[in-house]
């Protein structure tokens, strides 16, 4: 969801739209009298439109009696809106069976499915992009069950009283969860024109390569792929050994699956070893390619410390052998003079897909411990996570020892992306910062063409062919990152929430960042012009993602990462994120983050108090003298002796006094009445704003304290003050 | 028998600690009556910054299993390996140059760690190095407990029917019982309950005025005996709502007990009570589960599939989840059953093991006082030590022991309880005044201690051996301010409400700090903990400083306002 959309705003006279940032600048802030009528009409219209977009994009909550009741307006706004938009008398079933079912209405828009309970106590928003599957049960006395499973592991169970309505909703959901054209994705509907350039230029290859310290005499940028001419799934700018000729590169390119030749991904400055990635070679049973062998040799030679090169094939040997039949396969060690070959048993996307499905099954359906552990074992998820991390650790250790590595799997965009990115995460502290992690994703996932469209099933996974392409490769990568974080909690600038929200938005399609299968796709779709970047959105939430324990200087490489089986556990916070009953009720890290923020607020509060006390003391100490001074001055002025110093003294005292009188009010109001104790995080399920009262959708959603009243609000009910020093709620802002 | 008779060799030179709680070291082993001491040679300097020449002491009682074998079968002259597996899951391996010395040491340690009875135990010889400020032996007595209770309700009285432990050997001399019941009824009821454990008061929940009682199983037997006096006692608890009898055994186990003279209360005679089976594992199952669990956790090279399989086969986590589940059920009966004044009777077989886990966990869930350090101590004192959990029998051996020295009565029942508390603690880390290390500390002391609290099986044994006169209570040590400081959770924020833990399989976690304590480096986790503490304490101190400054500001501004008025008057004059 765009933000956690649980904020309602009701003005006294009825509903009021909150302006989108986009539209507010169009509105005249102070209109002249004679144009007032026109302006009001115009602004009303604009407000309506802006508000409608806001509501569609989940920024604004449903208003009673707004568009959804009057269907026409939505239909007008959204041309491809689907037939049935409103199903009432729907019961939302509590999956754990703890609470009673909620009766309410389901609204369907092109972008969201919204459940709203009749008493208004609950609102549930779901971006259509997040729908993974919809299941219809058979009609029973209670109603017709409909289960929506989501890609961010939420399961929504509905009971619909009428069979016909259920069928309609079922079909509608099926259709709108699987757009046929990429241009139908939610991201392209997001026309909010926030200044977005920063997010779209998160990664600059040149800057990143010089940050890594790539020596310009051994590694150079090549223009072989400009205009995506050689390899359409690679970025345009590639770094290769300086000694490699264009002919060598083109030859190697032809010899590699989909033209994905070996290129530099990471240069390890300390050991001067490099990490390169590519796709499998087209060896078949006996084919060779002199240029490819030459290129490998040059990659080896680019490392002054060791010419030996580790070639890591992340696939199990059997899989690699099977590929030989199709004219692909793996390099023959005999043909590459300087190479050591290593296989790692990381399974393919199909195995991972089934594994995750079984894991989710284990996390949601099992009733007792034995059953759960059995299901976990048969899912093999932890085994796969472990094998990926073992391979990544091997790469990181080899690079530290000064041995360059070349990594490939089949096409070099799934397993290769995982292990290459993870090994860099283990090696380079930069990638463990909030910003650096985005660069890492831009580089090794987006840049080198991980097929987000296909793997996440953004578009039309209607046929079997397409659904076989879907696989949780990126989710698994995030899971691996979390496993590292769990062992090294002080090595990361970001926290768990960062990964979880990123995971959600990879699937939600609200941002253009993860749309398309490669850079070329995104270029062709003009995503940077037509959509928003997730990074911009995340930048605005920077402090939500801070890890309170981050210790930037303690860790360089995390080579002592422990890969024993008992170290790997299920990431409950991701897979059971919406089952609040199953998660810890209190979290030490969140508490610490709040304490840190509170300490900051208290410190400035104490400073203000100190200043005030000092002022009062001087006033008290000087007031007797000042009054005598006044008397003196009065006497002297009567004596006709105009002393400018004394006069200014009088002026100062008077102004000082009037200042004090003002400050007295200020002190009573602000300095001494503001609550020192903040609302505890525990049990904070709703936003404290009376207008909002929105429920936090999951435990992971940030509870934000107002710096003045100390109550907890949702993100949309607090604003940072103009001087960027405080975060205050609506109520406290008005009071001021 | 004198302790010295068991010692065949007092000094073993040239011992090399290959594996243990610290980096490998050369040194010397010394065997004393109660301790095994490893004295490092002291010439090497350790990198870890610890004092390398510091001796390493371990109580013989803490050693669970001693293994001795030659380094090489063919060449006995190469020396021997002495492996000590401790009750706290620590494994120490020494390489001893002389095989005969090694064997002699192994025999001595084996004998000393398996002494019968408690008379030779270390607490009787221990000299406390601190002043006892707050004597643990008298901190928690029944009279005080009753005084507190009588503020809330007058439905109970103190009975000294068990004076001289004549009726029930495992109960203390004074117990709290329902008010309307005379001692004669209790005496008769005791004959009808396993181990003489007649129904006694356990916990009063003031919010709903419900009460938890516990007892042994009724001795119905195959002939369906009845005991009218027992029925009167149980039924006297009823006021306005129906009650519950919670049996911690499964239905089959309870039925099987009937053939052996035990059984369940027949519905006909206790008509106003609903009978509920909350199956918890039997003590033997717990013991086996722990042994398998520890074995699995100590195997570092295992594959992921094997690991999960062994975890599941061990059944330890299942034990934990069962126990938590039955406690949550009891708590629900007490707190949630929309009615008030619900009497809940809890028993298993003997009423000394799973019954106590259930009642004590239920109190942690229900009662915010029990979540403080003092309250938790009181809970352990009331519900475990004086309630007659046979610590000496159950904790004679731990997860490693096997062979002749072990028996059928050993079981980590108390550890199961502590692990359950740990689950609560990890679900509600801000709700408990104590930390995880407090639980581990209690675990270690329950098995081997220099303090007398966990000595003996019950109050009667303690009385006979004059434990309370001759030893120091563990609580006296904990109450010492310096000790207490280590165990206080700075993030503690009292929550007066009832806790509802989750017992779903994915929320039951392995107690890593317990099972992987000696295998992992905990510096990271400790670092995090201390930075959380740092920020919390800083927040607190700033809050109080701000409050003080506010007071000053208000004072000063009042003064200033007064003076201003005066000043203005002065000018106008």
TrEMBL record, chain A:
Substrate binds at residues 348-349, 409-415. PROSITE patterns: PPASE_MYOTUBULARIN, TYR_PHOSPHATASE_1. It is an enzyme of class 3 (hydrolase). InterPro entries: Myotubularin, Myotubularin-like_Pase_dom, PH-GRAM_MTMR6-9, PH-like_dom_sf, Prot-tyrosine_phosphatase-like, Tyr_Pase_AS, Tyr_Pase_cat, Znf_FYVE. The active site is at 409 (phosphocysteine intermediate). Residues 199-575 form the Myotubularin phosphatase domain. Coiled coil: none annotated. This is phosphatidylinositol-3,5-bisphosphate 3-phosphatase. It comes from Caenorhabditis auriculariae. The lineage of its organism: Eukaryota, Metazoa, Ecdysozoa, Nematoda, Chromadorea.
Automatic annotation (TrEMBL), chain B:
One of its GO terms (biological process) is phosphatidylinositol dephosphorylation. InterPro entries: Myotubularin, Myotubularin-like_Pase_dom, PH-GRAM_MTMR6-9, PH-like_dom_sf, Prot-tyrosine_phosphatase-like. GO terms for molecular function: protein phosphatase binding. Gene3D superfamilies: Pleckstrin-homology domain (PH domain)/Phosphotyrosine-binding domain (PTB). Pfam families: Myotub-related, PH-GRAM_MTMR6-like. One of its GO terms (cellular component) is cytoplasm. Coiled coil: none annotated. Residues 136-515 form the Myotubularin phosphatase domain. Belongs to the protein-tyrosine phosphatase family. Non-receptor class myotubularin subfamily. PANTHER family: LD06050P, MYOTUBULARIN-RELATED. This is Myotubularin phosphatase domain-containing protein. It comes from Caenorhabditis auriculariae. The lineage of its organism: Eukaryota, Metazoa, Ecdysozoa, Nematoda, Chromadorea.
């Amino acid at each position: 969801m765009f933000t956690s959309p649980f904020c309602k705003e009701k003005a006294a006279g009825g509903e009021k739209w909150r302006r989108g940032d986009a539209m507010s600048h169009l509105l005249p802030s102070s209109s002249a009298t004679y144009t007032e009528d026109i302006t009001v009409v115009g602004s009303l219209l604009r407000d309506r439109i802006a508000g409608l977009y806001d509501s569609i994009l989940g920024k604004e909550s449903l208003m009673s009696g707004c568009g959804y009741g009057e269907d026409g307006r939505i239909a007008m706004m959204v041309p491809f809106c689907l037939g049935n938009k409103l199903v009432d008398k729907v019961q939302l079933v509590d999956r754990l069976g703890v609470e009673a079912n909620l009766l309410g209405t389901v609204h369907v828009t092109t972008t969201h499915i919204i459940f709203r309970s009749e008493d208004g106590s609950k609102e549930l928003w779901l971006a259509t992009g997040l729908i993974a599957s919809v299941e219809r049960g058979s009609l029973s006395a209670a109603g017709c069950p409909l289960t929506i499973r989501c890609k961010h592991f939420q399961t929504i169970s509905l009971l619909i009283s009428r069979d016909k309505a259920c069928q309609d909703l079922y079909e509608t959901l099926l259709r709108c969860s699987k757009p046929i054209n990429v241009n139908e994705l939610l991201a392209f509907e997001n026309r909010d024109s926030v200044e977005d350039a920063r997010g779209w230029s998160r990664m600059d290859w040149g800057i990143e390569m010089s940050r890594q310290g790539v020596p310009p005499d051994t590694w150079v940028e090549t223009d072989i792929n400009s205009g995506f001419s050689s390899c359409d799934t690679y970025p345009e700018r590639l770094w290769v050994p300086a000694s490699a000729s264009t002919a060598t590169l083109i030859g190697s390119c032809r010899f590699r699956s989909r033209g994905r030749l070996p290129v530099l991904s990471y240069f390890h400055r300390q050991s001067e070893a490099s990490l390169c990635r590519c796709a499998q070679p087209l060896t078949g049973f006996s084919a060779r390619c002199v240029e490819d062998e030459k290129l490998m040799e040059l990659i080896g030679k680019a490392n002054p410390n060791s010419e030996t090169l580790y070639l890591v094939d992340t696939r199990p040997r059997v899989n690699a052998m099977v590929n030989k039949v199709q004219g692909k396969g793996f390099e023959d060690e005999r043909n590459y003079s300087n190479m050591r070959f290593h296989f790692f048993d990381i399974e393919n996307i199909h195995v991972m897909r089934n594994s995750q499905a079984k894991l989710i099954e284990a996390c949601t359906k099992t009733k007792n411990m034995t059953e759960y552990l059995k299901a976990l074992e048969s899912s093999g998820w932890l085994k796969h996570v472990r094998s990926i991390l073992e391979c990544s650790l091997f790469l990181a250790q080899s690079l530290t020892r000064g041995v360059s590595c070349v990594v490939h799997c089949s096409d070099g965009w799934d397993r290769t992306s995982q292990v290459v990115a993870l090994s860099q995460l283990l090696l380079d502290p930069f990638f463990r910062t909030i910003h650096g992690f985005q660069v890492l994703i831009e580089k090794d996932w987006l840049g080198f063409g991980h097929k987000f469209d296909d793997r996440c099933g953004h578009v039309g996974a209607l046929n079997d062919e397409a659904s076989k392409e879907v696989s949780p490769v990126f989710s698994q990568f995030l899971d691996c990152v979390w496993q590292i974080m769990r062992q090294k909690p002080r090595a990361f600038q970001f926290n768990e929430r960062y990964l979880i929200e990123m995971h959600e938005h990879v699937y939600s399609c609200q941002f253009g960042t993860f749309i398309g299968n490669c850079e070329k796709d995104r270029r062709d779709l003009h995503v940077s012009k037509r959509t928003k970047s997730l990074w911009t959105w995340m930048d605005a939430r920077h402090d939500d993602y801070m890890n309170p324990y981050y210790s930037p200087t303690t860790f360089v490489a995390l080579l002592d990462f422990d890969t024993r089986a008992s170290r790997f556990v299920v990431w409950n916070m991701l897979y059971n994120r919406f089952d609040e009953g199953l998660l810890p009720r209190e979290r030490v890290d969140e508490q610490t983050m709040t304490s840190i923020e509170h300490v900051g607020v208290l410190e400035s509060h104490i400073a203000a108090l100190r200043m005030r006390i000092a002022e009062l003391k001087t006033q008290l100490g000087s007031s007797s003298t000042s009054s005598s001074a006044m008397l003196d001055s009065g006497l002297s002025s009567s004596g006709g002796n105009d002393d400018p110093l004394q006069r200014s003294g009088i002026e100062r005292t008077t102004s000082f006094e009037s200042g004090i009188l003002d400050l007295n009010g200020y002190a009573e109001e602000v300095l001494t009445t503001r609550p020192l104790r903040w609302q505890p995080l525990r049990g904070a399920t709703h936003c404290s704003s009376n207008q909002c009262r929105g429920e936090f959708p999951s435990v992971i959603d940030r509870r934000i304290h107002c710096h003045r009243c100390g109550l907890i609000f949702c993100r949309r009910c607090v604003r940072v003050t103009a001087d960027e020093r405080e975060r205050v709620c609506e109520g406290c802002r008005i009071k001021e | 028998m004198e302790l010295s008779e068991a010692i065949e060799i007092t000094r073993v030179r040239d011992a090399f600690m290959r594996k243990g709680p610290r980096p490998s070291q050369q040194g010397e082993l010394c065997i004393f009556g109660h301790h095994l001491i490893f004295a490092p040679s002291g010439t090497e300097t350790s990198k870890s910054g610890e004092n390398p020449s510091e001796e390493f002491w371990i109580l013989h009682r803490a050693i669970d299993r001693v293994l001795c074998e030659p380094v090489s079968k063919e060449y006995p002259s190469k020396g021997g390996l002495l492996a000590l597996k401790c009750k706290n899951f620590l494994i120490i391996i020494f390489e001893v140059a002389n095989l005969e010395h090694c064997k002699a040491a192994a025999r001595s340690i084996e004998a000393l760690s398996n002494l019968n009875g408690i008379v030779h135990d270390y607490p009787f010889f221990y000299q406390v190095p601190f002043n006892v400020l707050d004597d643990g032996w008298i901190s928690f007595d029944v009279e005080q407990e009753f005084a507190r209770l009588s503020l809330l309700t007058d439905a109970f009285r103190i009975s000294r029917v068990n004076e001289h432990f004549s009726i029930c050997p495992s109960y203390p001399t004074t117990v709290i019982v329902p008010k309307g019941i005379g001692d004669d009824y209790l005496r008769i009821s005791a004959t009808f309950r396993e181990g003489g454990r007649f129904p006694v008061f356990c916990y009063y929940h003031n919010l709903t005025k419900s009460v938890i009682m516990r007892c042994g199983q009724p001795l119905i037997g195959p002939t369906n005996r009845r005991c009218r006096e027992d029925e009167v006692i149980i039924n006297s608890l009823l006021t306005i709502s129906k009650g519950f009898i919670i049996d911690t055994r499964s239905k089959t186990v309870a039925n099987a007990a009937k053939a052996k003279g035990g059984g369940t209360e027949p519905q006909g005679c206790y008509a106003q009570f609903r009978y509920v089976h909350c199956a918890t594992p039997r003590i033997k199952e717990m013991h086996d589960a722990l042994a398998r669990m520890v074995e699995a956790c100590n195997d570092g090279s295992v594959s992921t599939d094997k690991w999960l399989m062994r975890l599941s086969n061990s059944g330890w986590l299942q034990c934990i989840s069962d126990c938590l589940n039955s406690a949550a059920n009891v708590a629900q009966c007490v707190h949630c059953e929309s009615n008030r004044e619900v009497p809940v009777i809890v028993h298993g077989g003997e009423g000394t093991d799973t019954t106590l886990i259930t009642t004590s966990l239920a109190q942690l869930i229900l009662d915010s006082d029990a979540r403080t350090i003092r309250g938790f101590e009181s809970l352990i004192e009331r519900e475990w030590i004086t309630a007659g959990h046979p610590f000496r029998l159950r904790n004679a051996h731990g997860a490693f022991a096997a062979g002749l020295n072990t028996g059928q009565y050993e079981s980590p029942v108390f550890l199961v309880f502590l692990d359950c508390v740990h689950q609560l603690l990890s679900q509600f880390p801000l709700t408990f005044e104590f930390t995880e290390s407090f639980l581990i500390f209690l675990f270690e002391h329950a098995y081997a201690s220099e303090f007398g609290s966990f000595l003996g099986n019950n109050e009667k044994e303690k009385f006979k051996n004059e434990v309370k006169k001759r030893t120091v209570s563990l609580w006296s040590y904990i109450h010492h301010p310096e000790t207490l400081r280590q165990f206080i959770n700075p993030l503690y924020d009292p929550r007066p409400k009832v806790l509802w833990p989750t017992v779903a399989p994915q929320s039951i976690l392995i107690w890593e700090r317990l099972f992987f304590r000696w295998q992992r480096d905990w510096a990271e986790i400790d670092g995090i903990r201390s930075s959380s503490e740092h920020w919390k304490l800083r927040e607190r101190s700033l809050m109080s400083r701000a409050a003080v400054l506010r007071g000053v500001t208000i004072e000063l501004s009042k003064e200033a306002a007064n003076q201003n008025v005066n000043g203005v008057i002065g000018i106008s004059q």
